[in-house]
Structures are given as structure tokens and as C-alpha cells.
Amino acid sequence: MVVKTLIINNQLLTASEDQTILEAAKDAGIDIPTLCHLDGVSDVGACRLCLVEIEGSSKLQPACVTQVQEGMVIQTETEKLQTYRRMAVELLFAEGNHVCAVCVVNGNCQLQDVAVRVGMDHSRFPYQFPQRKVDLSHPQFGMDHNRCILCTRCVRVCDEIEGAHVWDVASRGGQSFIVSGINQPWGDVNACTSCGKCVDACPTGAIFRKGSTVAEMNHDPEKIRFLVTAREQKEWTR
Ligand code: SF4
Ligand code: SF4
Ligand code: FES
After folding, report:
1. What own/partner pairs with CB < 8 Å and gap ≥ 24 does 161-165 have?
2. What is the tens place of the pLDDT at every residue in 62-94?
3. Which residue intervals define the domain 4Fe-4S His(Cys)3-ligated-type in the entry (predicted)?
4. Which of 26, 61, 64 to mutate to test ligand 3, by most ligand atoms within 8 A of the CB atom?
5. Average of pLDDT values for 16-40?
6. What was the pLDDT predicted at 238?
7. Is any ligand 3 atom within 6 A of the Cβ of residue 76?
8. Phi/psi of residue 230, nearest 5 degrees
9. What whole-number distance in Å separates Cα of residue 131 and Cα of residue 119?
């Protein structure tokens, strides 16, 4: 193993030559925000959350797809980076339809976590309110494109871990969207093994398990009556 020496946030450290800046920083206990990165699958540098400053380069570089090099001097928390990250998150919120209050993953969402981390309390960009579809054709899962941030974690986990390659990205630029099969309803894609890996990989509420949405919650007041009766009749005392 060839070892490289570099400096991150004024901390001198060593890393193996095949590591990315993100991995080297993580090993040194330095936490860089990410969204499209997922441990165990390849990196694509899609979300630009992990940008860092490298001395000698005027361009910000994504830490998840930049290999370490001997003598690199890197900063991960400058004011410029914080401003840039906050802007990137604001754009994600403005480009989709994120109504957290009625979202399946409210309180357990990596997009929310990142928003809190970068200090985003509102978006300065006009909300676009795009018209997007919800696909409920799969018997167990649902796909709500309104909450998709195009991180492609579902695409990579399905292809690289499950080997099914159900998901892909269609179209280009701002028109891009995630497709199942050959742009078929998810339920019609025979390649899907229903393993649920994409559900676990999705950082937002875009892919979810049926039965977990707010509208599907079942309240059963009769259960309370049963418990009250059981308590009054001392059915639980020995
Ligand atoms: S995916 Fe996250 S950010 Fe988007 S609506 Fe749901 S909770 Fe909010
Ligand atoms: S569905 Fe989820 S995992 Fe897939 S690209 Fe959209 S946000 Fe990422
Ligand atoms: S985590 Fe590096 S670009 Fe998304």
C-alpha cells in the first residue's frame, strides 16, 4: 500500500493512495456533508455537497470523487464552502416539492439533516412546484418523484448490490428523472426482486414502503377501550 501525506483542516494525516479525500477525512474524524455518497457503492459526485477547497486550485472539488495526492492541503469548512453548500440545499428544496409535514420520512430524512447542518431555514430561490408523478404500481413500495433529489443512490444500489438494474436516469439536465425498467410502471418491471434495497438507500421520502405514509396510518380507538376494560376488570393482575 502506497501511503500519501496530506493536510486537512490544518491536521497532518496519512492516507492510502487509493482513498478519496472523503474517505481520508472520515478516517481522521473529519465529517464532510454528503447526500449522493453511500458507503458500499460507487461514487458519482452528483449532489456537490461534499465540495472542498484544495490549495493551488481555484475550483472547488467534490471530496467523494477526488483521490488523495501527496502534499495536498485541503479545507473542508471555509465560509465559501458553507455558503455554497447552503445554496445547493436551498436549490434542492426549491426544485422539488418537499412538504415535510406530510412526508413519510419526516424526522428521519437525510435532506432535512443536511438542511439543518448548513443552517438552511428557508430557500432564497423561487419554489418551482414542478408537476411530478407518484408511482404506486408496485405491490409493496411507492415512488414519489416530488421528493426525488436525483442522487441516484437507488440506481447504484440496485445495479451494484442487488444486480437487478431496475432504476436509471432518463432525459438530461433539469429535465432528468428516475425511471424504472424501460420507463414502465415499477410494478411491471420483472427484474425487480422486491428486495427493498432502494427503499433503504433513498435519503429522502421518494421511495417508501406502502403502509408507512401518513394517509395510510390506522388508528384503532377500539384498542383503547379494550385496554381500559381490561384494567378496570383487573384482567392483568395475578
Ligand atoms: S423528503 Fe425530507 S425534505 Fe423532502 S419532504 Fe420529505 S422530510 Fe421533507
Ligand atoms: S429516488 Fe431517492 S435514491 Fe433514487 S435518486 Fe431519487 S432521492 Fe435518490
Ligand atoms: S457526496 Fe460528493 S458530490 Fe454528493
Report:
1. 161/40, 161/41, 161/197, 162/193, 162/195, 162/197, 164/191, 164/192, 164/193, 164/195, 165/191
2. 999 999 999 999 999 999 999 999 999 999 999
3. 80-119
4. 64
5. 97
6. 63
7. no
8. -60, -40
9. 28
Q: 94 CA distance to ligand 1 centroid (A)?
A: 12
The CATH architecture that domain 3-77 belongs to is Roll (3.10)
Distance CA 211, CA 226 (A): 24
Q: Which residue, chain included where needed, has cell 493536510?
A: 7
Ligand that lies nearest to the alpha carbon of residue 100, given by its number in the listed order: 1
d(Cα 200, Cα 209) in Å, to the nearest integer?
10
| Ligand 3 contact via 35 beta carbon (within 6 Å) | yes
Q: What is the pLDDT of residues 195-224, one digit of tens each?
A: 999 999 999 999 999 988 877 877 788 888
Place of cell 495536498: 72
Which whole number is the average pLDDT over 180-185?
Answer: 97
pLDDT greater at residue 237 or residue 34:
34
Q: Whose CA is nearest to atom 8 of ligand 2?
A: 151
Residue appearing with cell numbers 419554489: 127
Give the binding-site residues of ligand 2, using a 6 Å CB cut-off: 148-154, 178, 201-204, 206-207
Residues 103-233, CATH architecture: 2-Layer Sandwich (3.30)
Q: Of 26, 44, 25, which is closest to residue 35 (Cα–Cα)? A: 44
Domain ranges of the chain: 3-77, 103-233
Atom of ligand 2 nearest to the CA of 147: 7
pTM (predicted TM-score)? 0.90
For the segment 136-145, what is each residue's pLDDT rounded down to a tens digit?
A: 999 999 999 9
Q: What is the pLDDT of residue 11?
A: 97
